[in-house]
Each structure stands twice: as C-alpha cells, then as structure tokens.
Amino acid sequence: xxxxxxxxxxxxxxxxxxxxxxxxxxxxxxxxxxxxxxxxxxxxxxxxxxxxxxxxxxxxxxxxxxxxxxxxxxxxxxxxxxxxxxxxxxxxxxxxxxxxxxxxxxxxxxxxxxxxxxxxxxxxxxxxxxxxxxxxxxxxxxxxxxxxxxxxxxxxxxxxxxxxxxxxxxxxxxxxxxxxxxxxxxxxxxxxxxxxxxxxxxxxxxxxxxxxxxxxxxxxxxxxxxxxxxxxxxxxxxxxxxxxxxxxxxxxxxxxxxxxx
Length: 261
What we know:
Layout (H helix, E strand, L loop, with lengths): L1 H6 L9 H4 L13 E4 L9 H9 L4 E5 L5 H4 L3 E4 L15 H21 L3 H7 L4 H5 L3 H5 L8 E3 L4 H11 L3 E5 L5 E6 H7 L9 H4 L1 E2 L3 E2 L5 H10 L4 E6 L2 E7 H7 L4
Parallel strand pairs: 1-2, 2-3, 4-5, 8-9
Antiparallel strand pairs: 5-6, 6-7, 9-10
C-alpha cells in the first residue's frame, strides 16, 4: 500500500509498529496521517503509535473489522472491513482479510490520484525505469544519451558520397540537406539498393532521396515515435528542430533500450 501511494503521488512510507515504540515514532510529524491496519483492532504493538498520535493531534485512518476495538476508537476515520471468514482451512492465517486490506489501500490511492489530478505524465515521472516511464519520455530526453548529429549530405552529393555517409552514420539512412541546412529528404539503404537499377555514375542525392520524410519534434513523446515507426513501417526518422535534423532515431536501438517490446 505504501509503495502504491508513493508511486501515485502521495508521499508515504511503511513503518513497522513494533519499531515505532523504539524510536521510529519520530517519523510521525504533525503534517502526516497514520494509516493503521489491524484486522482485530487490538494488536498490542499499535497502542503506542495510536496514543502518540492522540497526544500530538496526528490524524489516524484505521482499517479493521471491529470498529469498537482499540484501533477503531482511536481512529479519526475508521474504515470497517466486512466480517468474512479467512480462506485458510483452519480459519486462522490472514488471507481474506489481507486481500480486503489491499483493496482498501488501492481504493485510497485511486481516490487521491483523482483528487490531485495525477496524470499519466506524472505517473511516468515516478517510474522513469519502467516501460511506461520510458514511453512518456520526450525525444529531447532521449537525445540526452544519443546526442550524435545524423549523417548528412548536400543535394548534389554523388552516389559514392551517399553510400559513404550511410556507412559512417551506421543508422541505415542519411539526411539530405538544402543549402540553408534544412532537411530536404532522406536516403535509406533501400533507396541505395533501388538506385542500382539506374546509371549510378550520374545520380545525385536529390535523385535518390525520398522527399518529405516523416519527422518528429524534440518535445514529442517516445511513445509517439514508436507509433510513427510502426504505423508507417519504417526503420528510422529524423528529429527536426528549426527545420534542421538534430538526431536520427532507429527502431533497432529503441528495441535494444526497451522502448519497443
């Protein structure tokens, strides 16, 4: 429950009640709320924390099956679980009660998310190492680790210069630039292979390139990049800033990094 709350925008941490009687009560500040859980509501180790909260005006939310228990009486808000038998064959091991407790914890987390307007983007910021967090990264954030400028050639570059640039760039494509440095087109490995059907000695980059290539802005989400590559069945695209290519993204490196499953 503490982990779910923390990951969805509510500052929280777990404290063992037995440890609280030996110094960890100092973790409870006036601006905190204690979520105390006990099926019976009479757990001895909860007494010291509950009395401490009462003396220091710290709100308590209690989760128990017995609202008249010590926990229930010392809670500002008592969330009462229904009295349902444990699934244990002996009716003793916490099973049904733990499941209900988790459900209540999840419900609290979802309500708090809704109240504070916690978005997918906020969730991604709290999970930068997960698949969702990675998909919500911006292209600019991705470029922080992949800052190399894309290979490029001018419009009048000959065929050998194009092949050399693609080879050196190692991304399977090269940007073709207009005289002002703006992106004019893209030449891929496939374009080069198709060019052999012609007299390559007379070909220039402008003759081979694909005009109006698919591009993205540095502020686009990485999930948008994956969608563009997949929907258009292409392997790479350029990142454009002020009409100039500043990076090239290849689907193979996204797969290697975990952006594509």
